[in-house]
Structures are given as structure tokens and as C-alpha cells.
Amino acid sequence: MNFETIDKTKKFNKQFTYIKNEEELIGILKNSKFSISSGSALSFAPNFLDDESILISHKKFNKILNFDIENETIEAQSGCQLYEIQNYLLDYKYMLKIHPGWPTTTIGGCIANSIHGKNPYLDGTFGDIVREIRIILPGDTTPITCSRDQESELFLNTIGGFGLTGTIISAKIKVSKINSFYFLEKTIEIDSFEKSVEYQINNAKKLAAYSWHDTIIRNKKFGRGLIFEYFDEFSDKENMIFNKKMNKILDIKKINQPVNFFNKFTYEIVNNLYRYLKLYKKNIKIDIFSYLYPMSVFPIPYWFFFNGYTGFIEHQILIPIEKYEEYFFELKRKIYKYNIQAYMSFIKLFNGKRNNLMFDGQGVALSIEFLNEKKYINFLNLLDDLNTNKSAITALYKDSRVSKETVIKQYGDEYHKFVKYIKYIDPKNKIMSNFKRKFIL
Questions:
Q1: In this structure, what are the phi and psi dihedrals at residue 135, rounded to the nearest 5 degrees?
Q2: Residue 68 parent element (H or E)
Q3: What's the rounded Cα separation, in Å, for the pair 77 and 70?
Q4: What pLDDT digit, counting tens, does each position of 233-272 carry?
Q5: Is the CA virtual torsion 42, 125, 64, 133 positive or negative?
Q6: What stretches of 100-151 adopt beta strand conformation (E)?
Q7: H-type helices in 250-319, by residue range?
Q8: Element (H or E) spanning 325, and its range?
Q9: Which residues pair with 344 in a beta bridge?
Q10: What is 182-409's CATH topology?
């Protein structure tokens, strides 16, 4: 977690206005000069904040409105958290296919950021399971419904639109049938980024396959990692029990531990422990919540405690599939040249389509974490040039450091189309946020 978000959210906490129903929301929108909405405020980059806007929190606007089992859709208000929806769906043996790693993210936030799940190559991103969105346009107070068939331009720009196309009220989401409460997690040892990508390409149609990598500088071991594969092959009576629920969740925003315990030596220990822990049992049975929300599973939540108040910057990019080998060669060369400690990274495959500023397309997604310190921020500025030269795009909901000029170069025509649409849909700038001020205006 980038603690820039937590720090700024705490600063703005007293300014949040919490809504419980549509009438309260409409009243606020009617009387506000500027506004911006927020869900759980867990994005790595604080795009949802603004000094001059009324900050509308949807956390209490969180009802499940309807479950249409015949059409396999669930409708929920924008502030409904994903684990609450998943708890509800388990009674009917259904699930949402796409979840981020943390369980308290909201429907509205997942749509606005177009998050991805465990296998974006197979499942797509969150927008691919959204069927309808109810939304109030900027400067208006009457909700309208949009979908791929109705007000499609609004629909497609709202997905991955960072909350700038209007205020999301609710959405209908596609759900999927599941056979078991448990999944098989298979761990495979791998010794490089390149071999991980090669393996994932050859096994992309698994339920999920992604990799974790140790990127501490050391001879011959840089980039070694683990591939995690998942299967839902259980069918006996014990595994068909669906009455377990997810309740206790660590609130990472309340962690306020000032000391950073991590450096090259301590993280060497942490990486080795994590690796050995996963390899100790290469095939284990895990429940659905451990599968969907790996960031909430021991020992990962404690990383948030030990990395201190400043935390990490997670830099996530999507590299074209034909350029991943040369990209990884250049990345490793730069890391060694500047003596940079990249503490860990993850790799997934994508097979989507580029649209506006959403993080999607065809290629290899690399998430790599650096300490939030000046040395590493300067290095990330160098990586921006490498990313641009290799036609990679940066995930804008994770890295607030990236410049407008870099975004224009990376996203090209999609950037200009999105800016044109935002200026059309919101000519008076009724919706205003950090993100809009930096990248749109």
C-alpha cells in the first residue's frame, strides 16, 4: 500500500460527507460547486481527493438491491464492498469472477478504476462483467441508466473513467456459478521473469495463473519466483459447504507504525521465508476468500505494518507481448546500474482491448514495488522513459508520481479521446479531483 493515499485520506477524513440514500446524494450534488466520489479510499494513488470539492463517501451507501439468478446478475449500490457481495452470493453458490486483492474495495471503485483479478487474460477486467450502471451526470440530479446497448459511450467511458463521467449510484454485475468453496493452489518454482511469462502463455486458460518474483539484487537469483495456479476440482460433500463467511478484516488504513524495518538484508529474510513457506506445501487446499483476496492472507498483511508509514510505491505497467523480453533485459540492466532494490514483483497476462485511460490491452503486466524514498522515485522517473520507448502503459490508479506528459505519450489517441469526452460531458467541471487537475485540465 502506498501510504501517500492513507496520509492524505486521514487529512481529508473530516471533510468527507457520507451518504446513505439517493436523496442525500442528490441534495449534495444540487448544492455543490465541485464534488468527487470515493468508495473505500484504498487506491494506491489518491485520485479521489480534492482540496476544493465536496468529498462524497459512498461507504454507507452499500445495499444489495437485487439478485437475478435466472440472468445471473447482481445489482448493488456503489458503496457495497466486494466481500459483502461475495458473502451474499455464497448462499446461492455463485461468485464474482473478478476481485482485486483486498476485500473491502467497492463496486463504484472497481468500475471507476477498472480493476483486474487473478487471471485477466482469461476473465478480462472488471468492466467486462459490468452489465448496467446507474449514474448521475455532472451538473445534473436525475439518474440515468447506461450499458453497452444504451448510452454506450457514457458506459464505456465510465468504466476506467476515474469517477469523472458522473456519480455512480449502482450497477448490475455478471456473476458466475461455482462448484466448491475450496480451490487447489499449486505452486511452481521458476527462475526468471521470462520463463514465468513463457509458462503463463502456455497455460493461460487455467482458472488463474500469475507469478511472484524476488527482485533483490544478487548473483544469478534476480527474478526467481513462484507461479501460482488455481483449480476448482473439488466436489465431495465437505467442499460443497458454502455457509462460511468472511467477517474480520484488517483495516490497513488504521496502521500508523512510523518505523520502516525493511532494507536489503531484512527483505532478503522476508522473501526467503515467503518462498520457503509457499514451497513447503506446493499443493494446498484454500478457501474461496484466500483465493480471491491474497493480500489479506498471512503473512502479507504484516508487510503493511513493517514497511512503516511511508510504505511502498507499486509501479504497474503493461508491456506489449512482443517486447517483454527486451523490456526485462533493460529493466534488469538499469536496476543493477543504479543499485536499486526492487523488493518484489508480480506478473500477469492481459488479453483485453485499450480504451480511454484504463489499464488494459494485450501484453504482460508487471507490478514492481519500491520503497517510497527519493532515490527510488528518481529511478521510477527513469523507468518512465523505458516504458514509453517500449510502448508500455502505466496503471494510473497505482502511481500518482507519473507526469501528464508521460501519460500523453503512453496512452496516445486514447488519452485525447478520453479528455475530449470528459470536456463534453462535464463542460463546467462540476466533478473535480486530484486526477482531473493533473491529467485532464
A1: -150, 150
A2: strand 64-68
A3: 20
A4: 766 655 656 667 777 666 655 566 667 777 777 777 888 8
A5: positive
A6: 130-136, 143-147
A7: 264-280, 288-292, 300-306
A8: helix 324-337
A9: 369
A10: Vanillyl-alcohol Oxidase; Chain A, domain 3 (3.40.462)
